[in-house]
Fold each of these.
Amino acid sequence: MIPDPERLSRIWEKRIAPACGLSQEASFADKPEGFGTEVHLVETSEGRFVLRLYRPRSSQRMKNYLSANSVFTEIGMTVPEVIGHGRSEDALWLLESRVEGTIFRDLLPDVASSEKAASSLARLHGHERRRYGDYRSWGGFRLTLRWRQRLRERWNKVIRLIPELECVTEDVRTWFEEWADSYSPRLYQLLHGDYHPGNLALTLDGGVAFLDLRTPKFGFGILEMIEAAHHFQGEEPADWEPFSSAYLGCRDEETRYLFKRFGSSLHAVFHLRHADRFSDLAVGDRGELEDRRRWERNAYDSFLRFCSITGIIPPAVDLEPESAFPSRREYAPSS
């Protein structure tokens, strides 16, 4: 959806303001928020809010957001307060309070801020259970088995984008199945789903607020930590300090043992899954052509990093790799 000031004012005056008991006089400012949701900052005489507009076909996305907001509120995490939600002429809308504070993206590479974000993730992962899956579902016991069953489906996305990689299909399958058979943690952790600096805010009282939410699920907490460390600190394990140390320091001995034993293989899985994700984006309809070409380079880079960790020899491909997670070490303050 392309922002349209007249349309936005009309939706606010006719639907949102009456439903939420707010003034029809409001000022709006656009807020960049990925490709799937139109987000606006709203200010009225009653206060400051965030308005999320979803395409009608994205009703499940809004339901997932509301579910996550409810779950995280229930367990004591800081999230925006939902003021109201409903349907307008051509969109679904959700209005929430605006969290006052600083986006973590604007705090990088401050070490103390990264440590605080890592500790908050560790606190979230402290909510555990023996079954993986959605928070309110019965779930299952072997997530690695589920992933093993879906490997071909996911790998097909990669070779659809880069057909030259089909020749290593058997090597990828063998490595992944051996990993899936070896990694079976006793407990699964409650995940955020998209833990990066743009989705978190440091509140005025020094806490951490979650701003953009996904379906609340139990899964591999260490894998989410590895992904978050990439976003906060960079590509290489040596870059992950101080994020990983702060996280592991707040977790239990079992988590530290699993990271020590399986951290390298989970790093490889992270890159294989991102080769899949970037491939999906590169052949989809999100973003502009330039975005899709960058995602293609990101997919290839993630695959090469998977190969580097696993020892698989990749074929030659006439494509320049580009990391989606550049190192932040060069910007870190010297000790």
Note: Residues 5-98 form a domain with the Phosphorylase Kinase; domain 1 fold (CATH 3.30.200.20).
Amino acid sequence: MKLHQIIEANEQDGKSILLEAMHPYFKSLRTYYKDYYGCEPTLMITSVSNAAQYGKIVPCEEYFEALNEYTTDEDEQDVINFNSKLIKYFIR
């Protein structure tokens, strides 16, 4: 996936992106979304399995709103909260 495809996919409601596809672009995604949102972007991990992880980039100020829009299941919200971080912590 290319950077513009990741940005387009992230803008779609209910769609998550494979973290492996985002990994090479974390610095660029952080820069783009930090300017776009006006705050630090958060990588909300929406799905975790042995084979893959999926996520969505949301503004840190609206994280809980995005979480409530994504799911209302409290157990699922706990798993998402546990795995989600600010994008800057994924950059090496």
Note: The chain has one domain: 3-89.
